[in-house]
Amino acid sequence: MAKVIAIANQKGGVGKTTTAVNLGASMAIAEHTVLLIDLDPQANATSSAGLREDRPKFSTYDVLIGGRKMSEAIIKSTVNRFDLVPSDQNLAGAEIELTSLPNRELILKEALADVLGAYEIILLDCPPALGLLTVNALTAAETLLIPVQCEYFAMEGLGRLMATVDLVRQSLNPRLEIEGVVLTMYDGRNNLNRQVADEIRRYLPGKVFQTVIPRNITLAEAPSHGTPVILYDVASTGAQAYLSLTKEVLELSHAEESTR
Length: 260
Hints:
41% helix, 7 strands, seven-stranded mixed beta sheet, alpha/beta
């Protein structure tokens, strides 16, 4: 059965989708079967994952609202063992359409039952908001991975996200755990970056990954070429950082399995 990891932060521009795509591709290169589900109407993961098909037949919208099976919407990426359920602009209306559906917070969880046995890891790339799409992801996930940019308002946003996590635990998914926080766009020469990183480590002790994702031009360039950074320039500091993060996440998953 797949381990389901939600990747979320309600603040945009923190490297959430970059983390989802490159973590997924790096896991696949490490010979794990991975499914990335794009839950963001902006569809940035869809455009940067390196798809083998120009026009996917179905999307996450068709699964959540249209009643399609998750397996019908899966398409292959250019990385072996790394598949994607794409998003499109129709998903922008899903928040409103979901409100009228019974068990609206459980729709993604129920849809995932179709593919849980086909993958080792399922990644959920959430939209930059704490609406029903993100709540669906948190309800369906075992763990939450949080990309955080070390900037002035980072702690405020992290606090709001953790409050949502607590609400989801109370009423929808009591088993939801924090996979970890990954610090993104980090510059160790910047005093504010270092101070915010220290604050986050105090706020969530033992839950911040050792690997930090640096500011790196290659990470910014790769999506415009429609490919994960490890295929664009594996020697870049950005690619090496995501390979290191992947190793940490996989080691954590293996440790969890051994204690079950």
